[in-house]
Design a protein that fits this description.
Number of strands: 22
Largest sheet: 14 strands, mixed
Helix content: 25-40%
Strand order of the largest sheet: 12-8-13-7-1-6-2-18-19-22-17-14-16-15
Oligomer: single chain
Structural class: alpha/beta
Shape: globular
Strand content: 15-25%
Radius of gyration: 21 Å
Number of helices: 10
Length: 439
């Protein structure tokens, strides 16, 4: 089977980054784009024109043998808004000669049925296979029920019902049941199939069985890896090879110019050789974040801001001037609710924007080497990138599953260009481990 350009829609930014990292490791040219109301960047490119984020066409072009990942942020919208946004995007891309994949959360969060229905309506797919299982991470579906692998005991491996895990406390999409038909009633009537999958072999069998060109696939990372494999001429996705265009950070159309050192292994530390002198701003914005002992100063969010103040002057980040690196944290957990979550990520994003624009960017403009913005937590990542006005990225490397480093692409008059004076951005989902990536 020949390669086709693949378009992935992901409902949050860290899910988009995870998929981008998988495609990058398979040797694809990858562009990650996200909605930004103030930008005019092209999001989908194909042939001689691309689809802009406002639905218009732009002149950017890329090779069709690659992957474009669109972070839609629809998980943070209402169900009606998410469906409308999905229709808008898919209507704009449905004419392109591409394979479409819908990335969904592996813990069933998001407006899954509304988005899949809207996507099917606008693309013409008559059925969809929805497979959120991630067996490689201990998340399986058996007899229509979702299980998460728990800690091992002397009795062997133990699997826990999804609604008996911490996902039951999710503020926006709590897991109240582990039975997929109860969580998504009416799916079958809409042409949405939800098969069991307890292993990677199960996923391969499902893809082989349903891969007829008329079926939309939607699900988590393990499903995407298999879809990617079936849409390549190679029998298996290959790792990035030293000396290849991809390992050198150069796209085949020549738009990237600065070689990047090849990194062996997915677990190499962000604080490893060649990065020790970097200036780093680390945002611990997930409710599951833990403060990392990295020898970098920590600036916890003041209680007054946590309780509702928007006065950033209360947040003492003056230690940046001495160390040129800083960790921003939220040390309290006693407030809950959507309004609280929005306040916290908005304030975190505004403080990050202040530090990046007033400290980090001038530091890099002086000719200092290196510079990283590292963000844990999808909602915080989205809010921060939106605040900075960065909406288009090229993938640089994947350090570990879900931990992806990328470079912002500046856009002017629909033309993309690189700037060496912009920090690299690394994203990590809040529920994923760092796996030694930060030392």
């Amino acid at each position: 089977m020949t390669e086709r350009h693949m378009i992935v829609l992901a409902d949050d930014i860290t899910g988009a980054a995870e998929i981008s990292g998988i495609a990058f490791e398979a040797g694809h040219q990858v562009r990650l784009v996200c909605k930004n109301g103030s930008a005019g960047a092209g999001v989908i490119e194909g042939g001689s024109a691309g689809v802009g984020i406002n639905g218009s066409l732009c002149s950017n072009t890329v090779t069709t043998k690659g992957t474009t990942v669109i972070a839609t942020d629809t998980r943070s919208m209402s169900e009606m808004e998410a469906a409308a946004e999905t229709r808008r995007i898919t209507s704009a891309i449905s004419h392109l000669p591409s394979t479409i994949f819908k990335k969904t959360d592996s813990a069933l969060r998001g407006h899954v049925m509304a988005e899949l229905t809207a996507l099917m309506e606008t693309t013409g797919y008559q059925r969809a296979v929805y497979l959120p299982a991630n067996p490689s991470k201990g998340r399986i579906i058996k007899d229509g029920t979702y299980y998460v692998k728990g800690p091992a005991s002397h009795h062997g491996e133990a699997f826990i019902l999804l609604h008996e895990t911490a996902f039951s406390y999710d503020p926006e999409f709590p897991a109240k049941t582990s039975v997929l038909k109860d969580r998504f009633p009416g799916a079958e009537a809409k042409g949405i199939i939800m098969p069991d999958a307890e292993s990677l072999d199960d996923i391969r069998h499902i893809v082989t069985h349903y891969n007829d060109g008329n079926t939309l696939f939607a699900g988590a990372a393990d499903l995407f890896r298999e879809i990617l494999r079936t849409h390549q001429t190679l029998p298996q996705p290959l790792p990035v090879r030293e000396g290849s265009n991809y390992s050198q950070g150069v796209f085949t159309d020549g738009r990237l110019s600065t070689p990047l050192p090849h990194r062996e292994g997915l677990g190499e530390s962000l604080l490893g050789v060649g990065l020790l002198g970097e200036s780093r701003l680390i945002l611990c914005g997930s409710t599951q974040s833990r403060v990392l002992d990295l020898g970098i100063p920590v600036a916890p969010m003041p209680k007054e801001i946590y309780d509702g103040s928007n006065d950033l002057s209360l947040w003492d980040v003056s230690v940046w001037e001495q160390h040129h690196s800083l960790i921003l944290t939220i040390p309290y957990t006693y407030r809950t609710g959507k309004d609280v979550a929005i306040h916290l990520r908005t304030v975190m994003a505004e403080m990050a924007k202040c530090i990046v624009n007033n400290c980090l960017l001038p530091f890099l403009a002086e000719g200092q080497e290196g510079g990283s913005l590292i963000i844990e937590g999808g909602a915080t990542a989205w809010a921060t990138l939106q605040a900075l006005g960065w909406s288009e990225f090229e993938i640089v490397r994947q350090y570990a599953p879900g931990v992806v480093q990328m470079r912002p692409i500046m856009v002017c008059a629909n033309q993309s260009f690189r700037s060496e004076n912009v920090p690299l951005v690394t994203l990590k989902p809040g529920s994923y481990p760092w796996s030694g990536v930060l030392g």
